[in-house]
Amino acid sequence: MIMFNIIVLLFYHVIPSSCYSINPLAPPNNTNRLMTQHITLNCDFSPSQDGHICTARNLNITSRNITIIRVSGEYFNGVGNGNVMNLIVTQQNLRYIPEGISNFFKNLEILTISRSNLMALRFTDFLGLQKLRKIFIVGNHISSIDDQTFKSIPNLEVLDLSSNKIKSIPFEAFSLARHLKILTLSNNLIRIFDILPFPVSSELRELRLNGNQLVRINVASIQHTKMLEFMDLSENLCIDLRYPDDFGDIVGMYTHIVKYCNDDTGVDGSGG
Ligand SMILES: *[C@@H]1O[C@H](CO)[C@@H](O)[C@H](O)[C@H]1NC(C)=O
Ligand SMILES: *[C@@H]1O[C@H](CO)[C@@H](O)[C@H](O)[C@H]1NC(C)=O
Ligand SMILES: *[C@@H]1O[C@H](CO)[C@@H](O)[C@H](O)[C@H]1NC(C)=O
Known about the structure:
- InterPro entries: Dev_Immune_Receptor, Leu-rich_rpt, Leu-rich_rpt_typical-subtyp, LRR_dom_sf.
- By secondary structure, this protein is of the alpha/beta class.
- It contains four helices and 18 strands.
- The longest helix has 19 residues, at about 1-20.
- Bound molecules: 2-acetamido-2-deoxy-beta-D-glucopyranose (NAG) (3 copies).
């Protein structure tokens, strides 16, 4: 009897304390927990020919460390998050794109974030969204873009970042954007367009740089864009072409160029 008691006591004292550190149900690391805020993305789902649409509502995201852990909303028959091809955020408060979108909308092809106070694009923003083809992030306050931001989405075809506060395009931003067909950077604060060239087999057709503060374009940036048909350079400062001769060669391939310069001595009009 005494012997039994001792054994029980041993169990009480030894087991709980020695097991504690390896208990799989131990509470999560509080430091991590404090750094991340988990939210539910509220969606109004609607069907469309281009695949189902989620229009986000009641978003108020003011810090960087926010992760979506749930999506709420009314689904249609047999349709779930995996069927959403189009995510629309408009007139919400969304300073940063939350993490976790790709965990829910694996088949997302179109992302729109308009007039929603977005301040930055980060290299993690589009990770995992392998099918993303069109991005419209218009009328926000974006001033910084990570260099690697668009490298994770090789299928990107249309990128519209107009009406933001972008001062410069990251040097490597489009060096892998082989399928990019329409790039719209209108109405920003870009002074110099000098980036690593679009890829050799670039499919770029339209490049809109109007409404910036351009003083210089390094033509080498677009030297491989053999399919370019339209380039809008209107409403800028006087543009100095770094390699005017090269630009002259390329001009012949454009069907239309809109160019404005106070001192309009450069290439103008249409070729091809
Ligand atoms: C919790 O996680 C943070 C960051 O990953 C780490 O620095 C910290 O040491 C961890 N704390 C504990 C008690 O494990
Ligand atoms: C998010 O990170 C910032 C620092 O970047 C911190 O001040 C803030 O408390 C964090 N938010 C939460 C909800 O943990
Ligand atoms: C949005 O979040 C911020 C910070 O958490 C808070 O101060 C503000 O009141 C919220 N706005 C709305 C409309 O809920």
